[in-house]
Design goal:
mainly alpha, 6 helices, membrane, CASP_dom, cell membrane, transmembrane helix, transmembrane
């Protein structure tokens, strides 16, 4: 293998010899990367917690045989399903974030991981937004009917579930912004990090 000095002096390296230079990061850079990845983990944890809470609130929203049940309304089934899917996705992404923080590498190849995170964050954020919007419209419609007059707790718990879903959307949106930033860094620098 030729020394870096020999290559610098104009000698052509053999195609069988490659000069391997280690990827260098300073201590400050490593701390910034760890902080950035920790921020993504916090947003994913919050999205998981709010989406899971929304799912639990919706699935437990049945008081008895004479009160309305959440699964009798299509919009509330959509709210439950979307929040459950986002909770599962966020749980998976929390594991990926912990993996990245602990090992410094990605679970999938870097280009696949960057686009996977960004694409899925976008899709699931819009899924959650549309489900919670449908749930909001139904909850508003139910307020003027006998359903909420007969069983006010059903309507209150539905409102809480939808509100928790919107909070989950907010944190998933923040995660999407950070994963979009990583995509742009990858396009510009060839690395998911801006440093």
């Amino acid at each position: 293998m030729l020394s870096p000095q020999a290559v610098h002096n104009g000698e052509a390296p053999s195609p069988h010899h490659r000069i391997l230079t280690p990827h260098f990061h300073s201590t400050v850079t490593l701390r910034k990367l760890r902080r950035f990845n920790s921020l993504i983990l916090v947003f994913r944890l919050a999205a998981f917690a709010f989406s899971l809470a929304s799912s639990v609130f919706m699935v437990t929203n049945s008081r008895g045989s004479d009160s309305p049940r959440w699964f009798d309304f299509d919009a509330f089934r959509f709210v439950f399903a979307a929040n459950a899917i986002v909770a599962l996705y966020s749980f998976f992404e929390m594991g990926v974030s912990v993996w990245e923080i602990s090992t410094g590498g990605t679970l999938f190849p870097e280009i696949l991981q960057v686009w996977f995170d960004f694409g899925h964050d976008q899709v699931f954020a819009y899924l959650l937004l549309s489900a919670d919007s449908a749930g909001t419209a139904l909850a508003k419609t139910l307020k003027g009917t006998d359903t909420c007059k007969a069983s006010n707790s059903f309507c209150v718990q539905s409102d809480i579930s939808v509100a928790l879903g919107f909070a989950g959307f907010l944190f998933l949106g923040f995660s999407s912004l950070l994963s979009g930033f990583r995509v742009v860094c990858y396009i510009i620098n060839g690395s998911r990090f801006h440093l």
